[in-house]
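Hi R.,

Here's the chain you asked about this morning:
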Amino acid sequence: MIQCGRSICCPDCKNLKTKWWIKLNYTEAVEYILNVPKFTTKNKPEHTVELLKRLGHPECGMKVIHVAGTNGKGSVCAFLSEMLTLAGKKTALFTSPHLVVINERFQINEKNIDNDTFLRAFEKVKKLADELVAEGSYHPTYFEFLFLMGMVIFADANVDYVILETGLGGRLDATTAVEEPSACVITSISFDHMQYLGNTIEAIAGEKAGIIVPGVPVIYDGNNPAAAGVIRARAQELGSPYFEVKREDTKIIRNTRAGIDFSYENEYYGNTVFTLPFIAEYQVMNSSLALKTIEVLKDQVKIPVEAVRKGLLETRWQGGMETVLPGVIVDGAHNEDGVEKFVETAVHFQKDYPLTLLFSAVDDKDYTDMIRTILGKISFHHVIVTQVGGYRKVPAEKLAEIFREKGCPTAEACEDVEEAFKKALAAKGEDGMLFCVGSLYLVGEIKTLILQGVGK
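And the predicted structure, written out as tokens:
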């Protein structure tokens, strides 16, 4: 922890009016941000609007595509970013969470920002935060701080488009401080974070629909009638053009370990066949939302169909049924809908390949139901359970015992993630498939191990 003896106002210090005499380096800046949740609480969106004003409205001048939803937000953002970048637009991407390094949250033309860029933006926002506290106002929250940094970074880079992913919810999200987006996109709605968003699909959809802006087009997942009805009603109320995308609008031609070929059957794209570098069929829906968004914005940005095809083919998205090594897939599925979609994918492949599962979860998720859902339709060659998430971890042996109770007597507990991953790779063999599932923490740990050479 940065020490107050250095005359730096550290996150844990009670004297938040201390002057910032010494500039922080990159590592110290990241540590400061990670400690923000310890000393601040949720602020209202109006607070974020005021902070943008005091920063000189960095969000102005950028075309923003605002994306909300329960699952699929990150993938839709990645598809849009790739397509716009290939179309020659300088495109920024703001997403969360990060899996390995915090810079992942800020990308320009598909590349993470460098540490110097990160630090310059941090200094601007930290200076504002110090001023606010000195005035007796609120310090920006963790997510608010990062969002403000993103707007500063993207404004300084003079980007054309910002693909902006909400954090939690929509209506009360800091990102709604961007008041004039070019389009709003709402992905699939399911049960997650009910303590904040409500206990019904309609209530959760209402929170997500909070990103809709009068007169701004809305592109949304229409597969859940209850959620779609709420979104459609809100769009009508605000006079916003709305465009529904459903599974029946697409046709899957082929799904193999190499990816998926499909068509999005409408007049704009005709009989074009698109290829995705993912094995999960739900990515067809996510990519279709991105395709529809590009179609809706065709008078604003014209992208040749070939560039659109290439954009989908070259999109990479961390932790969303991502192939990280041959036959090794990581998926951050951690809620009901995410787990069901993982199961849908695994079922497709289990008839042709022996499947190995590496699983972990954190304590604020319904991991018992997750395990029950997974074992309900999939027979694994081997199951290894580990633990992740720091203070939120669930002991590996506890998770393994639940697997045994639910019908998988050979589930093996392994507390160390690296050891568990090596065992899972060995169990997979040359001809099998290994799915690493249950938590984004697990995904991040595995991707870090691969960067260190494990499994290669």
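The radius of gyration is 22 Å.

Let me know if you need anything else.
M.
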